[in-house]
Every structure is written in C-alpha cells, then in structure tokens.
Design goal:
Helices cover 47% and strands 15% of the residues. The chain has an 8-stranded parallel beta barrel, surrounded by 8 helices. By secondary structure, it is of the alpha/beta class. It has 12 helices and 9 strands.
Length: 331
C-alpha cells in the first residue's frame, strides 16, 4: 500500500514508426484516462529539438488537457525559466488558473530542455546559460508578477523542480514546494531533501516543507514484460551516456536487439536500482520504500514506454495495487 497521492509526468515520447502528431493525439487520451483513474496531477515537461521527445509547450498541453478533463490537476513539470520572460509565464499560467480554478500548477525548472547548444541559444535569444543569480531572479519575478500584475483571482500552485542541493536551497529560500527529479539524478535526492528541509522558510505559497518525488516507473503483469517495455528508454539512456542526444525512441523489438556494452549495462542497472520496475507487487514495494526513505508527500510516476496502451496499463496496475482494497461487507 502507498498512503500518498500519486501523480504523473508526461514526457511525450515520439515512438518509432509514428509521428509527433500521433504523440500529441495520445496526450489527450492519456490525460482523460488518468483523470478517470484518480491520479492527483499530470505535469508536462518542456523539451526541444529531440527526435525522441515531442517539442510541445507545457502551457498549451495544460490548457488542452484542462478543457478535456474534470478533476485532475494539470501544469508544467516544468517550464524552464531561462527560456521565458517571467511576465509571460505569469500571464499564461495566471490565465489558466482563472479559467480552471484550483486545478493549475506552475512547476518551474532551470535546464535548457535540449542537448543542442544552438537550440539552447535560440531559446535564450542568443544569451548563454543562466547564472544562479539570474535563475533566482527569474523565479522570484514570475511569482511577483503572478500576485502583483496578473491578479486574475485564483493563482496557480507554484513548485520548484530540482535535482541538486542548489535547486533545493532556492526552493527553501523562496518557501516553495519542491519536486525532486529522482528519475534523473537519484544519487542527489536525499541530500537535496535534507538541504531543503533544514533551510525552509515559510511563505504565502507554502507553510511547511512539501515534497514531491518523481520516479521512473514501469509496471506490467510479469517481470519479463516490464524489462521488455523498459528497453526503448534504455537505448536512449545509453546514447546519452555516450553524449549522443539524437537517439530516436525505438520499439521494444528494436531495443531488444540493441548491442549494449558491459559498461552501459552496469550504468543502466545502477540507475534502475533507484527506480520502480516490475510486477505490481514489486513496483508498489519499491514506491513505498522510496516514500519512506524520502518522507515524500506525493509520488509522481514517469513511464517512458512504447505504445499508449502499455503506458496506461502501467498506471492502471500501480493505481489498483497501491490502494488498500475495501474490506468485504460483514455478514
């Protein structure tokens, strides 16, 4: 059993043999199904210039999903502050929050959202990477504009994404809830959370430390099927280990024939040890252990597998087995 809210991160993988348009169409079905399953929130990640991930603006997907669902919270996980003017972020998400009260989240991150330097510079209109000070100022300005300039009524719920103690320190300083990218840098999770909790300063946004942990999760009826489904993302990760970011998202059959090196297999196994893969019992046990270790208030699952049906099945299995079943009526 997992006595915590469960949420989802949409990475919008463009599958082999399909187009970005197909992926975009799937995001609507995905949002509606997660809404029906009772997931707490669904966030959209910002990515650019990748053959494996659709370049769909989180604000646009959030607006579309909010109009297509009824209860699930929606937002960014995250929009990347260096790529956007703070006043525009405030206007966009402030408008969404006014249209869909108490359902919109504004998750803010720092990275460029691309491994391509020319694309990163284009996003920044020729500027280089943001400094620590510039990033802090952008986040603070976005929050200020939400309150002082947009002021449309209901506000989006702001979160700060982090994968290190530096991001955790900023979330603590600004008094924001923190979303930890355990699915990217699991080795930093515990140190970042210790840093965050020790330095947290209450604010209008958050009265106490509040933690969401994002974990890569692949759940299937058998261990063998979970391994098969995780294969395509393993190929993408292996490419990133070599510095190759132009890796398409292959099918499970293509991934099964991929010649991983011994070093890649060790690295992938080390990463997998911190995530949640396998049968429902195994996955729920892994998630429960992570919740205990981190003291998380909420878990967010990211499931980068091939085919919408398999991805939805993973979320269905987790949700079904994570909640304690009702007791049978007494006679």
């Amino acid at each position: 059993m997992i006595d915590l809210p469960l949420s989802a991160l949409e990475v919008a993988m463009v599958q082999a043999g399909t187009s970005a348009v197909d992926t975009l169409r799937d995001t609507t079905d995905f949002a509606r199904r997660l809404d029906a399953l009772g997931y707490r929130r669904l966030w959209y990640a910002e990515h650019h210039h990748s053959p494996a991930i659709g370049a769909f603006p989180p604000v646009v997907l959030t607006a579309h999903a909010a109009a297509s669902t009824s209860a699930i919270r929606l937002g960014s996980g995250g929009v990347l502050a260096p790529n956007h003017a703070p006043v525009m972020l405030a206007e966009q998400f402030g408008t969404l929050a006014a249209l869909h009260p108490d359902r919109i989240d504004l998750g803010i991150g720092r990275g460029p959202g691309t491994f391509d330097e020319s694309t990163a510079r284009a996003l920044r209109r020729g500027a280089g990477p943001a400094t620590d000070g510039e990033y802090r100022d952008d986040v603070a300005a976005t929050l200020r504009f939400l309150v002082e300039e947009v002021a449309l009524g209901p506000l989006p719920e702001p979160w700060l994404l982090c994968s290190s103690t530096a991001g955790a320190a900023l979330a603590a300083e600004l008094g924001l809830p923190v979303a930890v990218a355990h699915h990217i840098r699991p080795e930093n999770t515990l140190a970042a959370l210790d840093h965050y909790r020790a330095r947290f300063s209450p604010s209008r946004w958050c009265a106490r430390p509040r933690v969401l942990v994002c974990v890569e999760t692949v759940c299937a009826e058998t261990e063998e099927e979970a391994v098969r489904l995780s294969g395509p993302m393993d190929v993408v990760k292996a490419g990133l280990l070599k510095g190759h970011s132009e890796i398409p998202f292959p099918s499970p059959a293509e991934a099964s024939a991929h010649p991983f090196t011994a070093e890649e297999r060790r690295a992938l196994a080390a990463f997998r040890a911190h995530q949640a893969y396998g049968t429902p019992e195994t996955v729920v046990g892994r998630l429960a252990g992570l919740a205990d270790a981190t003291g998380a208030d909420e878990l967010m699952l990211v499931t980068p597998v091939h085919a919408l049906t398999a991805r939805l099945r993973s979320y269905e299995l987790v949700k079904r087995h994570a909640v304690t079943p009702p007791e049978p009526p007494r006679r």
